[in-house]
Amino acid sequence: MAPADDTRDTQLTPVEETRVDLGAEFEASGIGEVLDALDRDLVGLTPVKRRVREIAALLLVERVRDRMGLAAEPPSLHMSFTGNPGTGKTTVAMRMAEILHRLGYVRKGHVVAVTRDDLVGQYIGHTAPKTKDVLKRAMGGVLFIDEAYYLHRPENEKDYGQEAIEILLQVMENQRDDLVVVLAGYKDRMDDFFTSNPGIGSRIAHHVEFPDYTDEELLAIAEKMLAEWNYRFDPAGEAAFAEYLHARRAQPHFANARSVRNALDRMRMRQALRLFEQRGRELTAEDLSVIREPEVRASRVFAIEAGTDSEGA
Questions:
Q1: From the CB of residue 260, how many other CB atoms can be counted at a distance below 10 Å?
Q2: How far apart are the C-alpha atoms of 83 and 178, rounded to whole Å?
Q3: How far apart are CA 81 and CA 45, in angstroms?
Q4: Euclidean distance between CA atoms 51 and 48, whole angstroms
Q5: Would you state the pLDDT for residue 83?
Q6: Cα–Cα distances in Å, from 98 out to 89, 103, 146, 265?
Q7: Per residue, what are the HEC states of the chain?
Q8: CA–CA distance, 290 with 247 (Å, rounded to integer)
């Protein structure tokens, strides 16, 4: 006769075999590297990074649950990124594609970034081939549609955007295991878009809001960009650029990090011109690397703020 505790041991075995070390799963997946890269790539955006980590944690746990026979309804992966221009939406989409790929939710992990013009044709019969071609290129990865609300133009009876939306809807539903769609744009316009197109809105599981950067974060972004290009501000130039940021944010069409990059490009040109006009003397690495106060204060932003811009605001 078998010992009384043999049955107990047999019953324990399946429990022991289905235990999982989530930390080991996290390390093996490699998504920690992606999250670390996101922290390095982007200044600030704490709530966005937190949301990405939440989504990554959900997908990791769901993968483990599926392997342990605890499968539930597959998580919906389509997303909405809302915020002003230059707040890192495209960068986060690229990192999210890496996470999805490493966890096995998409085959390739690439990102295809498009706008309305890439999807909507200008005449009858033009939209479907354009939209299907984009979807074909995006399969196995992430389709990032910037300013997605421009797909829908109800005021124009001859607009073909609705056809693109209907094709997109079919693919979002029927091939959601092979394509993740990220719709991006200004929050108020995206809200209106989802209200006007409830079919798309109902398929978006994750809404991520991207806040504007603070002055301090924008200065850190500028210094990070300059360091990547082997430039830097001198102390007076840095102080002047801090003033520039405060003034520029109060003016129209400010696009966060995008505007910072454009401003730095113009300041580099002014520095190059200054050095060119000093030709005849030998230049050091210091000369070629430093952005000085005059290059910053030559910006029209200061003239507009002072009301002395001859071209007007």
A1: 24
A2: 27
A3: 13
A4: 5
A5: 96
A6: 14, 9, 19, 30
A7: CCCCCHHHHHHHHHHHHCCCCHHHHHHHHCHHHHHHHHHHHCCCCHHHHHHHHHHHHHHHHHHHHHHCCCCCCCCCCCEEEEECCCCCHHHHHHHHHHHHHHCCCCCCCCEEEECHHHHCCCCCCCHHHHHHHHHHHHCCCEEEEECHHHHCCCCCCCCCHHHHHHHHHHHHHHCCCCCEEEEEECHHHHHHHHHHCHHHHCCCCEEEEECCCCHHHHHHHHHHHHHHCCCEECHHHHHHHHHHHHHHHCCCCCCHHHHHHHHHHHHHHHHHHHHHHCCCCCCCHHHHHEECHHHHHCCHHHHHHHCCCCCCC
A8: 23
Residue with tokens 């005449």: 123
What span, in angstroms and rounded, lies between the C-alpha atoms of 295 and 173?
53
Structure tokens at 18: 């289905």
Q: Please state the pTM of the whole predicted model.
A: 0.84
pLDDT band, very low/low/confident/very high, at 306 (cuts 50, 70, 90): low
